[in-house]
Design goal:
single chain; 16 helices; Hypothetical protein af1432; about 325 residues
Length: about 325
């Protein structure tokens, strides 16, 4: 018996009856020989961790565009925080932590530069719209690995696709990531907004603070424990009504006061115009994209979709660099 089979047997003996077992995965689109050491979801986690798209997350905006404060989150640190919250929930409920972590690490791979600002622009420009959760799946299925994709299991791709608030993941591990994403971005964005001097702790709705706590770490702890207590030995992850309502109240407050109307979003209009101009420029100068994206078009992929692939894969800095290259005139120098 291989190490992988030993680990799969251990899952069967120790995990909840509602957990997703590696040995019973729905599999991959392209069948592969099993690894001697790693179960299927562990391999998926490693493939995501070593992908180019994952590494680029460190230079993509979470909320604050090009922050001068070193401690503010990026899309990468957000992803890592989601993974840890989701793993905490999964561990307590005896779910499959490797599946949970794989989904968490991959859930934002398709995010655009400049956060949701870039996403909104591409959503308006593309005939069929643009959603980062759908794009994240496209990254792992088509774009990564030089156009071959990562050939991830169906369970991981389902969790990535359905991590947003309106999603309905088919596994409890996917549900853990869906909750963890919301817990992370609400509370860590509050933390960043306080760090940046945009809001104060006492500005937050008192009713929500009374239920969840008066510090970021207390609120995260309350939310995690509530999910664990209310979901134990159940086929679905749930929150209590009062805690869920308090979290929704905080989320709405953040949209009204930080995500949309705050000083932190003053540069959004510039970022929106930058993404729009890049899209239009590549539409007229398609050959300026890198070869791996041009090969997607050669394979029959829709041209506009591939342009969005290229732009959404950019880091903030790379998008700004390309904008300067195409639209900002350089001073003339005499040729020696």
């Amino acid at each position: 018996m291989s190490i992988r089979e030993d680990l799969e047997k251990l899952e069967e003996q120790t995990l909840s009856k509602y957990a997703t077992l590696s040995s019973r995965s729905l599999g991959r689109d392209v069948p592969e020989e099993e690894c001697e050491v790693r179960p299927a979801f562990t391999r998926d986690r490693d493939r995501i961790l070593h992908s180019k798209a994952f590494r680029r997350l460190k230079h993509k905006t979470q909320v604050f565009l090009a922050p001068e404060i070193d401690h503010l989150r990026t899309r990468l640190t957000h992803t890592l925080e989601v993974a840890q919250i989701a793993r905490t929930i999964s561990k307590a409920l005896r779910l499959n932590e490797d599946l949970t972590e794989a989904i968490a690490l991959g859930h934002d791979l398709g995010h655009t530069p400049f956060g949701h600002t870039g996403e909104r622009v591409l959503n308006k420009l593309l005939p069929n719209g643009f959603e980062h959760c759908v794009q994240s799946v496209r990254v792992v299925e088509i774009i990564e690995n030089k156009g071959k994709g990562l050939n991830l299991t169906k369970e991981v791709r389902d969790g990535i696709l359905n991590h947003r608030t309106s999603g309905r993941p088919k596994t409890l591990e996917g549900q853990a990531v869906r909750f963890a994403d919301k817990i992370a971005y609400i509370n860590h964005d509050i933390d960043d907004a306080i760090e940046a001097g945009i809001i104060k702790e006492e500005d937050l709705p008192k009713a929500a603070r009374d239920i969840l706590g008066n510090r970021v770490k207390d609120r995260i702890n309350t939310l995690i424990i509530d999910i664990i207590k209310n979901s134990s030995d159940k086929p679905e992850l749930i929150m209590s009504d009062d805690v869920a309502a308090a979290m929704q109240s905080l989320r709405k407050w953040m949209f009204d006061n930080v995500y949309v109307n705050s000083v932190a979003k003053q540069e959004d209009e510039k970022a929106s115009e930058l993404v729009r101009l890049l899209y239009e420029y590549y539409s007229k100068n398609i050959n300026l994209m890198t070869s791996e994206y041009l090969e997607l078009i050669d394979r029959g992929e829709d041209k506009q979709t591939v342009i969005a692939d290229y732009i959404s894969g950019m880091t903030d800095d790379y998008a700004i660099m390309k904008f300067n290259e195409y639209f900002v005139p350089r001073g003339w120098r005499a040729i020696n």
